[in-house]
């Protein structure tokens, strides 16, 4: 674990210089303070090439692209619709990967978990336009969609229950609709569905999504985020099929316990 933290820290330091790339390419920039950004360097692309070379030389598969859906800004922080962002943040924090650049309209980080290269992104386009970031990111790294996992909120699952599936539809989720559209209608990407439960009574679903969790629901979500990190680490070491089978079996029992509890 410490070796990964050190490697990812060194990689993140490499990002702090000047970018001179073609302005027509997918632009990468670095935050420089609140509301301020500056161009990133050739080192950013050198880092990407380093990851590519390491995967190629070791015979490892292509990197995984983990995409968390949500809305940018403090106004939406901690709301139900932003749990995809929270999942990315939790994974990055626990694995020592700094999310310190803007790339293809997303807050972005990259590093290694063991021998597996991972790319982390939180689109800053607002939820309904998430595909404007996710489509270019997958294209930029030339990734097949079976190396992409999208993290998102799901009202069809009880609060705190997760589901890992290798493909699926949008389920009326506007962020997923945009992602699928920008993947040219292709739905062959994986999803980590994060249950937030249904709105109570006659509450407007839109208002429910933009509301923050109460204390008990917040506790369940925090537990779920750590479970999600553990599942993703298992996926990186054991592969998707085995990790999904084990993880979903555990979450099935959790579903039974929580489905009648209030959110």
TrEMBL record:
Tagged with keyword Nucleotide-binding: no
Record-given protein name: Peptidyl-tRNA hydrolase family protein isoform 1
Pfam families associated with the record: Pept_tRNA_hydro (PF01195)
Entry keyword annotation includes Acetylation: no
GO terms assigned for molecular function: peptidyl-tRNA hydrolase activity
Keywords: Hydrolase
Secretion signal span: none
Family: Belongs to the PTH family.
Protein species of origin: Theobroma cacao (Cacao)
